[in-house]
Design goal:
CATH superfamily: P-loop containing nucleotide triphosphate hydrolases
Radius of gyration: 20 Å
Number of strands: 14
Number of domains: 1
Strand content: 15-25%
Distance between the termini: 64 Å
Length: about 270
């Protein structure tokens, strides 16, 4: 019996290659309190940025930037937004990125706002439910809509070799019976958080202490999830020093390019 042996460079018809950090693109989920600087940090990502904006007035912190274009969907109806994100190329995002290679990063601001849009659409399909009481099917429909949209964007960015950043907000703290805070996570359902975070290589939490900005790259201060492949996180967080007025200081592009240049070796946390 003859056994067909494939070329050593193919496996099941798929070419084999060695691991290469140069072929890796950034996928980042950035979360924290409203106004802590998440959007400003996202704007330090590589290349020009295409921002998918769902938060009303969410672009106030990036006004005047010449390396950003905003697709403002904050005033669109929930039915229109959800329907467009069911298509293979929602709003022509893939076509735009193909025609404009200088746009290296897509920023979704924010997943929290999109989640509310998806919940509105879910409630509209069930007359016995409401925003206040969506019911289990309403929540399931919302979660599926968020995951579908996130997967579509990640697939487009992967196919076109682009970076993607998801921004979401911090949720209400969980407390014990004595009123003590025991944990804080994103303002998303647990299933959505887990499913989206699994597909992303960096999950960072941001805090504005009033004096400085802190970035945590592994669980810290009762907050989770956070994870990283980029940083050698011997401590869970570091201070981000950046001047948003003059756009000076290190940011995501600096860190990510250094990580790729180093062949994927973990970077020491900034001091």
């Amino acid at each position: 019996m003859n056994v067909e042996v494939e070329s050593p460079t193919l496996l099941g018809g798929v070419p084999l290659r060695s691991p290469d950090a140069e072929k890796i693109n950034l996928s980042l989920l950035l979360w924290g309190d409203a106004g802590c600087g998440k959007t400003t940090l996202a704007m330090t990502a590589p290349g020009h940025k295409l921002v998918l904006l769902f938060d009303p007035d969410g672009d106030m912190s990036i006004a005047g930037r010449e390396d950003v274009k905003v697709l403002d969907l904050s005033g669109h109806s929930y039915a229109q937004v959800i329907e467009r994100f069911r298509s293979a190329d929602p709003y022509g995002i893939e076509a735009f990125l193909k025609a404009n290679p200088k746009y290296e990063t897509v920023v979704w601001d924010s997943v929290t706002a999109y989640s509310y849009i998806a919940l509105q659409e879910a409630v509209s399909k069930n007359k016995s439910s409401s925003i206040e009481q969506p019911g289990i099917h309403g929540f399931q429909y919302r979660n599926a809509s968020v995951l579908r949209a996130a997967t579509a964007l990640m697939t487009i960015c992967k196919r076109l070799n682009r970076n993607i950043i998801f921004i979401t907000h911090e949720g209400v703290a969980s407390k014990d019976t004595a009123g003590n805070v025991v944990s804080v996570t994103m303002a998303l359902s647990e299933s959505t958080t887990n499913l989206v975070a699994l597909r992303i290589n960096e999950v960072w939490h941001m805090t504005d202490t009033g004096r400085e900005h802190k970035l945590a790259v592994r669980p810290h201060r009762m907050r989770k999830p956070m994870k990283t492949r980029m940083w050698n996180a011997v401590t869970p967080e570091f201070t981000w020093r950046y001047d948003p007025i003059n756009n000076t200081g290190d940011g995501i592009a600096t860190w990510f390019n250094a990580w790729r240049k180093g062949g994927g070796a973990k970077l020491p946390l900034p001091k």
